[in-house]
Design a protein that fits this description.
mainly alpha; 73% helix; globular
């Protein structure tokens, strides 16, 4: 059934297939996804609680980490509850406006996450290359302003996605062959010329992720140059260690994200099942891994969590 408004027609709802080709295994596939989602939610809430309650962690690195944890909570919660409902309860239908809201949250907060990682790279650059001026350069006010810019960028850049789609007519086919609503997947159901939408999507991808990757790359080139100039091997190892967690988080986000983005547009020879699995990995694995990586590798957070588990006050 199609409804009309604002010069366009759209279905009342869409049908999300989940993981096509593995329908008989949906019930069992849901369990590892559920465990990963629980770990992601619990881990990021713990990170936020530790940083909020320990005033010694109110420093740029940990404030950015709190932003990352909050972003991960929103990103994972925008898709996983519906996905689990599809896999366990066969709740394949999603209302039209709910689908567009999901598109908005997925792309807006993916942009925010990329921006936060860029800000964290700048923080590491200042901390290693200008250690004596770190606290005066990255004040709390500067950190908040940088976080606000990243948030506003994500919201403003992604909002046109939903607006342009809402003005376009849809074909009778309303089946989305994956487990959540994503811009390109919804765009394939439009019965009109979508070149402007696709062009804008490429513009956003390259202007946001491209810019962030360039800034991250330049930051780490400067960091590498500064570290190699340190006199002792122990000092170099310690400096590299402070960046290891951030590099792991960057790889966990960008590798599956870039694979998903490129296969949607150019990877017509990639099996659809592989694309669907990577699409789910890209939205769930980074939110799950980020608190684990920082919890294990960051001594201050690790010690605070251990003290909390043992019932000891700091």
């Amino acid at each position: 059934m199609l409804t009309s408004g604002n010069g366009s027609s759209h279905p009342v709802s869409f049908i999300l297939l989940g993981i096509p080709g593995l329908e008989s295994s949906h019930f069992w596939i849901a369990f590892p996804f559920c465990i990963m989602y629980i770990v992601a939610v619990a881990g990021n809430i713990i990170i936020l609680h530790v940083i909020r309650t320990d005033h010694t962690l109110h420093q740029p690195m940990y404030l950015f980490l709190a932003m990352l944890a909050l972003t991960d909570l929103v990103l994972s919660s925008s898709t996983q509850p519906k996905m689990l409902a599809i896999l366990w309860f066969h709740a394949h239908e999603i209302e039209y406006h709910a689908c567009l809201i999901q598109v908005f949250f997925i792309h807006a907060f993916s942009s925010v996450e990329s921006g936060v990682l860029m800000a964290m790279a700048l923080d590491r650059y200042v901390a290693i290359c200008f250690p004596l001026r770190h606290s005066s350069i990255l004040t709390t006010s500067v950190v908040i302003k940088l976080g606000s810019v990243v948030m506003v960028r994500g919201l403003l850049w992604v909002s046109p996605f939903c607006f342009m789609i809402s003005r376009m007519p849809f074909c009778p086919n309303k089946v989305i062959p994956q487990s959540y609503c994503e811009h390109m997947a919804v765009l394939k159901l439009v019965c009109a010329d979508t070149r402007v939408n696709r062009g804008y999507g490429l513009f956003v991808a390259f202007s946001v992720v491209g810019f962030d990757i360039i800034v991250i790359g330049i930051s780490y080139m400067m960091i590498l140059r500064a570290v190699l100039q340190l006199p002792s091997g122990e000092a170099r190892l310690k400096a590299f260690g402070t960046c290891a967690s951030h590099i792991c988080v960057i790889l966990a986000l960008y590798v599956p994200a870039l694979f998903t983005f490129l296969t949607h547009r150019f990877g017509h020879q990639v099996p659809h099942l592989v694309h669907i699995i990577f699409a789910n990995v890209y939205l769930l694995v980074p939110p799950m891994l980020n608190p684990i990586i920082y919890g294990v590798r960051t001594k201050q957070i690790r010690d605070r969590v251990v003290r909390g588990c043992c019932g000891k006050e700091p």
